[in-house]
Each structure stands twice: as C-alpha cells, then as structure tokens.
Amino acid sequence: MDRTPELLRRTAELAIDYLAGVDERPVGIPAQPAEVRRPLDVELTEGGEDPLAVVESFAAAAEPGLVATAGPRYFGFVIGGSEPAAVAADWLTSAWDQNAGLFVSSPAAAAVEDVVEGWIVDLLGLPAGTAVGFTTGATMANFTALAAARSEVLRRAGWDVEAHGLIGAPAIRIVVGGEVHATVPYALRLLGLGSETAIRVPADDQGRMPPDALREVLIGGPSGNGAAPSPTIVCAQAGNVNTGAFDPLEPIVAACREVGAWLHVDGAFGIWAAVSPALRGGLAGLEGADSWTTDAHKWLNVPYDCGIVAVRDRLVLRRSMALSAAYLLRNEADGRDPYDYVPDASRRARAFTVYAALRALGPDGLRELIERCSSHARRFADELGREPGVQILNDVVLNQVLVRFTHRGDETAGGDDTAAGDARTRAVIAAVQRDGTCWVGGTTWHGVGAMRISVSNWRTTEADVGRSVEAILRCAREAGREPALAGPSPRV
After folding, report:
1. Of 59, 127, 198, 481, which sits 20 to 30 A from 181 (CA to CA)?
2. Whole-angstrom distance, CA of residue 268 vs CA of residue 292
3. What is the DSSP string of 437-486?
4. Per-state percent for the chain, helix, strand, coil, to nearest 5
5. Partners of 233 in the beta sheet?
6. Which residues contact 435 (CB under 8 A, 6 or more apart)?
7. Model confidence over 268-311: pLDDT tens digits?
8. pLDDT in tens, 85-113
9. Counting beta carbons within 10 angstroms of the beta carbon of residue 13, is it exposed (0 to 12), middle (13 to 18) or buried (19 or more)?
10. What is the pTM assigned to this prediction?
C-alpha cells in the first residue's frame, strides 16, 4: 500500500505547525552543534525505515537546532521570511521535481522563467530585452554576470575566452569600490581573475564609491585622453551591506561609457528599492549598467535558494553560459533553454517561487514591503539614537542600521575610549543574542565595532520593532552595569 499521501499530509502538518509558532519562537542560536547532532546521529538500518517515522523523528531531532530566521525579529543578516505563496510554490516545486535546465525536461520551468524575466525587467526599470537567469544566490549571480563581462570585454579585444581560456589573454582591469561585498572578489577568484587583483577606489563615509575617484582611476583625471589601457570591468553597488547606501550610478555610468568599460551593479538587496517612488532616487542611472544581480531570498522573501542575474545583452550572457553535448536536445523553436543563462544545467525550478511571490504581492505589495521595512529601520535608528551612550553610525537610507554603544567619553569614532566602546558594543550584542527577543549581528565599520540591524522580513511589524528596541536597550543597560568585556566578538 502506497502511504505517500499520508506521509506528505503529515509533513505539511509539521511545516504548518512550525510556521504557526515562528513569530514567538526565541530568536538566536538555540543549541550547540553537539546537542543537535546527538539525536540525529543514528545507525542506518539495512532494510531502511518507515518513511513517516523517519520524517517525524527527523523533524523532532532537528527542531532544537532550527534558527528562527523566518521569524519577524531576526535582524542579524539580510534574510527574508518566505512569503506564504512562495512557500506553497516551493512545496509544489519539490513535488513536481522538474529539471529546470532544459526546455524539453520542463516546458513549464522554461515558460515561467520567461514570464518572470519580463516582470523583473519591468519592476526594476531595466532596459527592454535584458536577459534574466536564476542562480543559487547572489554569489553565483555575481559569478555569472562577471563571466559575461569577462567574455565581452575580451571579445572586444579580439580574444575568445570561451574557446581559449585566460592563458595568453589580454589583461583585464577590474575596478571596485572600497566597500565591495565579499562575494565579488570571490567570484573574480572563481573566474581566474584573482580576488586581490582589483583596483579598490576608497569609499566615502557611507561606503559609496566616489565617481570622481573612479574617473581618476579609469581616465587619469579630467585631462585624461579617455582611452582605457586594457579591457575594463567596473563593479558598483546598490545597497551597502552595512549602511544600505547606493553608489552614485549616474556619474559612474558616464565614467564607464567614456572608456568603454563594462559596468556591473551588485544589488543583492538594495536593487529592490527601484520599485518604490520614495526610495528609487538612490538608484538613478541603474538602467545604464551592463549587468545586475540580486537575491530573491533576501528582500523578495522567497525560500532559499534563489539568486537573480540580469545582463543587458542576451547574446553575451548566452555566449558565456551556453552548454552543448550530443545528447542535449536544444529547443530550436521560440522557448528558452534555461541552461543558457546560468552555470548549472540540472537544477531546481527556482523561478516557480519568484513567480508566486510576485503574483501574490503585485507591484503595490512589493513596494509596500520595501517601504515598510525601510520605515522600521528608521524607527530603530530614531528610538535607539535618542538614548544616551548610543550612536547611529550611518545615514539610514534603506533597511540597514549601524548602532554603537559608547563608553564614557567615546562619543565619536576614534575617541580615547574607542577600545572600551568596542568592548561595550560587543557585550550588548552578546546580551541581545542571549536574550532571544531578537537577533542582531556585529560588524566593524571604519575601524570601530558596531551592531548591525537588517530589516527585510515581511512578517516584521511595528510591535516587533518596539519589542526589539526595548530588548536592546534593556541589554545595553545590563551591559553597562558589568565590567567591559574583552575577547572575541559574539557570533555574527
């Protein structure tokens, strides 16, 4: 007797029960690895076990190690909370079990990618005809975009990198901002361009790349001759991971056009501000870039994993990604073969969850989500910043807040008591993480320690912000009564 229906219904019940309680689940690291591993580490039986018993046992054993990242008071990283329609679509994605690499293995997956591509291009205001692919996350999205950039700048220099690789190829000049996200150098490393080869343009006090400084690098100053010495790729940022700040894209686009450089925009979460009339001013010039990346599992709030890459020239993307083999039946009609757009062939149909989320939210719902999270971030900054001994280190332009807890005379970064302020900030972060009301992480900003608050979950309400502010200030008062802590930072 096939017990699959019973198994899946019970599994759905377990998932529903978890989600029903996630709003009030303590936030943080609930158990240490050894505690989690102990009930999971069982001997495999020769004949296997009853699937229903396996799932129930697995759910019970894993539950103590589940972090409430889907809950409304998880602010440690830019992590969305999985919008309900996207969760439901994700369940269907697993049940349908489509190989989304080829049209012939899933016309549905190919068609959905086509439809979602159009929606994303329209929502973000990208040029008509822009190609969109779906990766595991922003890391592989950056890899894909930069592979396309590498291909095109070398083609212009007369070199076919797909056929001949990098040995003997013209040198490529890479230029990034001083606050470039770690995934960009990592992608450069994977592409054989090196993680330490990029020229870093020093960032301003909010982490933005100054366009005049970029132009100086690209052209050699106002009197430069406008000739790039080598194929050039510039990586800009839409949404600094600490401050949320945007690189000024309009003048950056202009500087890149002067020398024929490829401009890539890493917009892991910040690019979604394009849907908001109140916030998209910081993205002026976005459409002038050559490639863009973002994470759907961040601010779009779809389940892990789903990154998005967009490239202005479809042929460039397909040239850099295309896969061929005698047994692969290509779609020569009017549909797409998704493996022409991202590095992996056999893969999950990631666009299904994006389709469900965008239809469920609609443009107005997505705009409201982005604006609501940004409003929550401003409230955090306003209420925490009013307290004596608390500094807000960034201009809160989006959903990111940097908070520092000062010690005695340490009222400005670099004060005499900077080390003591760092210690107190670490102590407050550790106390908040132990408290469990909310979860925040730590970072270093311009040489000083800071608490980082990221608001990107559709579940977060004004009440959640109020509870979290109260908990942070309570922990700060308790930390102030204790000796300043030395030693390593808490987990971030």
Report:
1. 127
2. 9
3. SSB-EEEEETTEEEEEEE---TT--HHHHHHHHHHHHHHHHHHHTSPPP-
4. 45, 10, 45
5. 174, 262
6. 471, 474, 475
7. 999 999 999 999 999 999 999 999 999 999 999 999 999 999 99
8. 999 999 999 999 999 999 999 999 999 99
9. exposed
10. 0.93
